[in-house]
Amino acid sequence: MRRKRGRPIDGWLIIDKPSGMTSTQVVGKARWLLDAQKVGHGGTLDPLATGLLPLAFGKATKTVPYVMDGTKIYHFTLKMGEARDSDDADGTVTGYSDVRPTDDQLRAALPALTGNIMQVPPVFSALKVGGQRSYDMAREGRPPELPPRPARVDRFELIERIDRDTAVFVVESGKGVYMRALARDVALACGTVGHITVLRRLRVGPFTVADAITLDKLAPNDDKASALPELLRPVETALADIPAVALTEDEAASLMHGRAISLVDLMGRLPKVDEEDSPLCATEGGRVLGICRLQDGLLRPVRIL
């Protein structure tokens, strides 16, 4: 059997992504600097975007879905009067408008873009159409017609009007919401066109930008030998927002072998959850064991760490 390249490193590295790099490039750079076997990330950022990009190493990759399911917070700057094919400043201009809405008109457009909405993704997105990436088709001059998709926007507020052409918004959302589409759509709702010029992500699930470091801090002067693996956070950090249930030693052993536990045995120890199928973090003696779900009167293991 071929030995995996790199070191077996486990944990989360919280990066403040610079503009101009793709999320994949950041992952590759961190993997190289730490000589790690396995790395993933908790939610793609556009090349133009900056801010929070959580990187999962080793066993932490098992917890990525729970991070991506968490709340995300963004700030973005909308430039009005100019449409671009990518809905951000990296794209080609496709149209103009002389209309400049007032602050009140911008605010009046936000409720329709808040809550459970249907959103048409940007054509420059990684969605697949007939087996091909939408952005590849768009670059080849045949942008696809993408159908609206469900999206959840919990908060959408105007926080600053910089000048006649430019406004800054804060968005709090669930997974799969495109900020470029929100910027495009608020401009269209006000009778103009627009695109994002600045996008910064401030939160993903339990992680905030205050937790983040730059790639330079991970390895000063790009020196692989100086990389600091101690900057990684424990795997279980990703599960901080998930309600926990404490198990006995025997219950933990059963769970680790894939066996479900009767909820009758857990009476008085179960936290309140919104839905029966909600995830729970199973612990034993302060140690995180993995993710479980409540189903049919049982605590069932989903992902053992």
From TrEMBL:
Question: Which reactions are catalysed by this chain?
Answer: uridine(55) in tRNA = pseudouridine(55) in tRNA
Q: Name one Pfam family in it.
A: TruB_C_2
Give the family this protein belongs to, as stated in its UniProt record.
Belongs to the pseudouridine synthase TruB family. Type 1 subfamily.
Record-listed E.C. numbers: 5.4.99.25
Which species is the source of this protein? Acetobacter orientalis
| Record CDD domains | PseudoU_synth_EcTruB
Could you tell me what this protein does? Responsible for synthesis of pseudouridine from uracil-55 in the psi GC loop of transfer RNAs.
Q: Which NCBIfam families match?
A: TruB (TIGR00431)
Q: Show the active-site residues.
A: D46
Gene Ontology terms: biological process: mRNA pseudouridine synthesis; tRNA pseudouridine synthesis
- Keyword Isomerase included in the entry's annotation: yes
Report which superkingdom the organism of origin falls in.
Bacteria
Q: Does the keyword tRNA processing apply?
A: yes
Using the record's annotation, list all stretches that form the tRNA pseudouridylate synthase B C-terminal domain.
Answer: 180-239
Q: Which residues form the Pseudouridine synthase II N-terminal domain?
A: 31-179
What terms describe the molecular function in GO for this protein? RNA binding; tRNA pseudouridine(55) synthase activity
Protein name from the UniProt record: tRNA pseudouridine synthase B
> What positions does the domain tRNA pseudouridine synthase II TruB subfamily 1 C-terminal occupy?
243-305
